[in-house]
User: Fold this.
Amino acid sequence: MTELEPKSLHAEPLTHCPLCHAALDPLSPGECPKCDWVAGYRQRSFGGTQRDKAAAALSVIPGLGHIYKGHYLLGAILMIGGAFAVLACTIAATASAGFGLLLAPIYWIGVILQVYWIEDRRAPR
Assistant:
């Protein structure tokens, strides 16, 4: 095979761990006996689950999506934080000719993105 030919679609089986370089057991080549590596490590698929999308939609009220995914304390903190964020934006708006109101959507979008990416503690296994 020359350098210009495409590589095969079937990769050769791993013989060493890509993280710690320990020899892999031929009977279970998908996991490392020395570290926590497993086959598929750090491979994220694009697009979330239906529960991720539902949690993002529920985060119209900051914190509600976190509660839906099982992060109760964080959801309560974000709900209280949302009230303080609105208060802080109102105060900033009076001092900045209304531009302080642009801070509220930044908080809201951050909460939505965070709930979309956080692990789901209540998902069926």
Observations:
- Residues 5 and 11 are 15 Å apart (CA to CA).
- The chain has a mean pLDDT of 84.
